[in-house]
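Quick start: read one record
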Amino acid sequence: MPDTFPDLTMTITKARRNIMPTPRTVGELLDTLIAMEKASQDFHLQLHRMFAHHPTAAEVFWAMAADEALHIWMLQQARDSLTPQQAASPPPPEVIQKVAALGAINPEKILNDIQTLENAYQTLHELEAYEFGAVLDFVLSEFFPAEYQRQFLVSQLRDHMGRLERLGPPEWRQEILAIKEV
């Protein structure tokens, strides 16, 4: 894992869970990424529920969950476009390692640890940044070769991450408590 995400390393270490098998082929890789995006969408919806009492936070998490639906669709389009030979080919080992690290995260453990909007912000910022860095280059270059496709996806992903900025400064986020269902 890159040293630029030391907090994520701690998050992954504390929240380990082997929920997804390590992909051995490009087809399995895309299937795994689709499953991860679905889990990410659910994670955002859980945050939406935890911060439903705060309209801005609830709106941000709802919009991020909607973004995940677009990510799922785009990955499914890439998966559906593979020939049998492409689907059976091995992905780069570094992509496999990064996807395996993401697949080992236990979202329930992370949600249990979130006490404030600042915790949610930091967690999402780290996870999303790592996810984009871990697989974005590979997915864009392999499955969206046209420049206009890459520009659209990069713009969409920038907007996705930019939504977090609506959550205000850290001091303010620290004051907004998560409400967990009993």
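Residues 1-18 have pLDDT under 50 and may be disordered.
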